[in-house]
Specification:
The protein is α+β, with helices and mostly antiparallel strands. The chain folds into two domains: 181 residues, 3-Layer(aba) Sandwich (Aminopeptidase); 206 residues, Aminopeptidase (3-Layer(aba) Sandwich). Helices cover 26% and strands 28% of the residues. It has eleven helices and 16 strands. It has a 16-stranded mixed sheet that branches. Helix 3 crosses helix 4. About 2% of the residues have low confidence.
Length: 408
């Protein structure tokens, strides 16, 4: 959830069922018992959408129309996340279709506000089943919630209270389906985070980064030192093979084993694993960019059993000043290793990303991977922080290494 109005939105969150930054003295000293903050009564939920000014309208994306996915992609490119003033994220239509049409999705949750058929705001949600455990209180809960992503308001309308309206409307629609809680992320501190991690970036294709002015160095000696520091070799790449549909049952079992100690983790069905980790679905025609979204690989032992798994999804940074400048970026997705250390697993991930023509790779200190594992592999810690939040749920904070959720 991103690009939310600042002052007015902070006031909005103070009145929402979320953990607040200013706890009372007693709550600071005692453990927080896991529970909903509010129990919503279905018969008291409004059946009608929130009213909008007469020149605005609610819009549910037609998932069968390629042009609508392209329109959403352009809106998010221009208004979602900017890296400084010169680079913005570009999620191509294939990426968005995969992210927003997971098993159990509802088109009513792919929600925009439009003015004369142009997006002014957008928010989305998909259903997820997760397991949450709390070390302090020794509690464990399995629950069906929503994962909320791609919260975005047009740059020119961020003081018009549009973000709270989008949040209230998606909340109303989720509650009508019986979902009382949601998980979401943001780079801004909206309320008290459940967890947080810095972004870590590793440079892969230096020449393309120089060529596109993503890295700005003028001194030849400085450039040479930079090249030496980030010199890359694929010699240590192991015999990874692409994930196959026949691997999914075993992969599900391996996730359950390797994520056993994670405090926040997804509980996937086979259909969900197929959707997230195989690439032969959700294809949109006439996409010029590389339309492979997720890369998933396994290592197997001599018995043919999966021992290790790594995956990343692919997106772009695009220049806001030169439309021809693009930086292909791999985002670490889900990973586990039984035959190797975390440092080695991260190294294998970076080699695979480089060998599939990515210019950079980004990760967080989650799923058992610590900042030390990333820095060992020449990942740089950025100043930007990813905060994890839960709506209508309270529990003790969780270390990011114990979170096994990736959101967009």
């Amino acid at each position: 959830m991103e690009n939310i109005e600042n002052k007015k939105t902070s006031e909005f969150w103070k009145n929402q069922p979320v953990l607040q930054n200013k706890l009372n003295k007693n709550e600071e000293e005692t453990e927080i018992k896991m529970s909903n903050l509010v129990d919503f009564e279905l018969d008291k939920i409004d059946l009608k959408s929130y009213n909008l000014p007469s020149d605005l309208k609610w819009n549910c994306l037609n998932t069968e129309d390629d042009n609508e996915w392209k329109e959403l992609s352009e809106f998010l490119k221009n208004h979602y996340i900017n890296i400084g003033s010169q680079w913005s994220f570009y999620h191509n239509p294939n990426f968005l279709k995969k992210a927003l049409t997971a098993p159990g999705f509802k088109k009513e949750w792919i929600l925009g506000i439009k003015y004369k058929d142009k997006y002014m705001g957008f928010i989305s949600a998909i259903p997820v089943k997760i397991s949450i455990s709390d070390e302090k209180s020794n509690e464990n809960v399995i629950m069906n919630i929503a994962q909320v992503d791609f919260m975005c308001v047009h740059k020119n309308l961020r003081n018009k209270k549009m973000a709270p309206i989008l949040i209230k409307e998606i909340t109303r629609r989720l509650q009508l389906e019986g979902l009382q809680s949601a998980i979401y992320t943001g780079t801004k501190e909206l309320s008290k985070p459940l967890s947080y991690s810095a972004y870590y970036v590793r440079y892969l294709n230096l020449e393309n980064l120089f060529k596109n002015n993503y890295i700005l160095l003028n001194d030849e000696k400085e450039i040479e030192n930079f090249r030496r520091k980030y010199k890359f070799s694929s010699d240590d790449l192991l015999k990874w093979i692409p994930l196959n549909e026949n691997d999914l049952i075993e992969l599900k079992q391996k996730f359950e084993k390797n994520y056993e100690k994670m405090q926040i983790k997804p509980i996937w069905t086979i259909d969900e694993l197929k959707h997230w980790f195989l690439t032969n679905n959700s294809s949109i025609t006439d996409i010029k960019d590389n339309d492979k979204i997720v890369y998933s690989y396994v290592l197997k032992n001599e018995k043919g059993e999966i021992t290790d798994f790594t995956s990343f999804f692919s997106t772009f940074y695009v220049s806001t000043t030169n439309l021809n400048s693009k930086i292909r970026t791999a985002y670490s997705f889900h990973n586990f290793g039984e035959s190797m250390s975390k440092e080695k697993l991260v190294k294998q991930l970076t080699i695979l990303a480089k060998n599939t023509n990515h210019d950079t790779i980004i990760s967080w200190s989650i799923m058992g991977i610590t900042p030390e594992h990333l820095k060992f592999n020449r990942f740089i810690e950025s100043k930007q922080v990813l905060n994890f939040y839960m709506y209508n749920w309270k529990m003790n904070p969780v270390k990011s290494e114990n979170v096994a959720m990736i959101m967009f």
